[in-house]
Fold this sequence. Notes:
This protein is of the alpha+beta class and 67 residues long. It has one helix at residues 44-59; strands at residues 2-5, 11-14, 19-24, 28-32, 37-40.
Amino acid sequence: MINLTNLNGVSFALNPNLIETIENIPETKITLTTGKYFLVSEYREDVISKIIQYNRSIYQNAIKLTD
Length: 67
């Protein structure tokens, strides 16, 4: 889960696996695969960074590099 902030200042956690699109309109609009969307105060690039960090934390031990 990634932590985000609604435009009214309330924090919430979102499952990044449900994200379909992230747009700047000028707020950041996150649309889920279910059709539901959230307007958040974080910039699109920050949301993407949170998703990358989340995925790294999940998959960091999934791939073993061989010599």
